[in-house]
Request: fold
Amino acid sequence: MRRGWGTAVIATLIATTAIAVAVSKHRSRALLDAQQELSWERDRLKTEWAQLQLEEAALAAHGQVERVARERLDMQEPDEFVAVEVTP
Amino acid sequence: MTRARNNHRVEAAEPQPVSPWRARVILLGLGLGVFALVGRAFELQVRDRDFLEAEGAKRFERTVQVPAGRAAIRDRRGEPLALSAPVESVWAVPEDLLADTASLPLVARLLGQAPDELRAFLQARESRRFVYLRRHMAPADARRVQAVNAEGVFLQREYRRFYPAGEIASQLVGVTNIDNRGQEGMELAYDEWLQGTPGSRRVIRDRTGRVVEDLAEFTPPDPGEDLHLSIDLRLQYVAYRELKDAVDRSGARGGLVLLLDPRTGEVLAMASQPGFNPNRRDEIGTAGVRNRVITDTFEPGSTVKPLLIAQAMDAGVIDWRTQIETGLGYYKVGRLQIRDFRGYGQLDLAGVLRKSSQVGAAKIGLQVGAEGVWSAYNDFGLAETVGTGFPGEASGVMRHFTEWGEIATATASYGYGLAVTALQLGRAYASLADDGRLRPLSLVKLDEVPPPLRQVVSVENAQRVRHWLEGVVAPDGTANRAAVPGYRVAGKTGTVRKVKADGYDENTHMALFAGMLPADNPQVVGLVVIDEPQHGGYYGGVVAAPVFAKVMKSAARLLRIPPADFQPPASEALTASTDQSSPT
Reply:
């Protein structure tokens, strides 16, 4: 009788762990999938970031800024030294 | 028969004992089966295990490269000078793509080629398993090619180098080749630093190519580190703009501008003409790639006079009250006739510098002697490399003083017969600016200032010479066009005849100006060299000095250097104008 119970308990445990292994495997794959997804996303964002930096650098290129300042905004380089006190 | 026996009410239907041979046969059969299984299992699990595992791994395990991407080069304020952005390269297996006759024309059109052209291209390479169709495409365009789903067409992620500053700092920053390895300039000098090492991970992929399991092996990518150069892109832009303008207007062969911070030895700007655009591959390999500031040597001419005078005073051969008789502007040393622009009579040392008297300098040089002049220049570092690590750095040329006769000593006193790089000359002026301390120069932003190499001349003598050099920029000096309104500027001109095939040519010159601002406590040192100006004069004071003035004026504003008579505003005042020359 005792032995029968012992066997049953062990059998249950084995069955449980077997299922648990399958479940965790499944979860791990799902997580891996999510991680893949995220690393693609990161890749995409990196690409975008690099492109934005380039775009910013192109727009803020000194030659470009100077042309806009001089021609469109009619600005000029200051000749005088002016100190402005800024109070926060 | 059995039925009959049952009908006879046999008590218990005792089975007939099985004949032992049957049991044995079955047992034997089972035993053989088990043996075969165990044997096969042994064969697979133990004997062939390594082989099979390796074969299996070959079929579904993959090592995936994790690209690191090349790090950026930035200026001292973090503005990007070189950036890597991901792009796609399209490659194909020629045989497979040729077989896919339906998709080929589509692919060709997306690549901007005629179908026949692409077909011919592939047929010529049919035996290969890998051929690039187009490298470095914009990711969006590349995905369109991929969407065709043609046989044997694949994308490969690569990084392309972009240079947002373009031509402005191109010779200093340098370029990489198409495989992202440094080829010129700082890209080459710091190639390892920027490159980084790609990481890798070992994964199991399923049939559709999705990663289903990450194995334990993972080497994280080690991205290169951003390189912060010492230059300030704002100053670099001004230097580039003014130099280009001056070179274009004077029809010169080239030129350079160098700005240094004398207190740290950092290079603040380094422009060189002719230039090139690093974003255009076809311009790489032209003369514009050369960084003249670092790789070219020239005779420094009169710009060495302040160095000589400071050293002569330091050696005690002359002192600050010494008067030099330059007479009518003629002086004969052996066969050499030294001439001044005109006779200046008796000059003090300030006068020798202000008038840039060749006679005066030669007389001082002969008084100091060959060894003295030689070691004076050596102390200022004119014969040693500056040690920036920049590829192709020149070291200058100076013969040993034992080979100098009287004539060589006299000519060396006014800067002929030796060749220096702009970096060496700039550094010598930076040491005058920093009270006689000669510092190592750096092209990379410094976190802490290294100790100076040596004290070249005493603090008083450096200050005296600086004060005299203000006279050069004064209204009656040779370089009044180097003046910056509101600031005390010290500097020295140089006009050097260039050596052609048959000796010094009277018609080709280099115009130089080296100076600093503000004279009493210099924060920027500038050097301008214009090579072979054609129109509008050739004197250093006429061609180079105005460039210096324009660059320095902007530098003073951008670096917020207060003018000479600047008073900090009282707390009530909002603005304080200090420029007297233009009333508002």
About this structure: Chain B is about 35% helix and 25% strand. Residues 233-558 of chain B form a domain with the Beta-lactamase fold (CATH 3.40.710.10). Residues 572-584 of chain B have pLDDT under 50 and may be disordered. Chain B touches chain A at residues 79-80, 83-86, 139, 162, 164-166, 168, 210-214, 233-234, 237, 241, 485-486, 554, 556-557, 562-563, 566, 568-569, 571, 573-579, 582, 584 (CB under 8 Å).
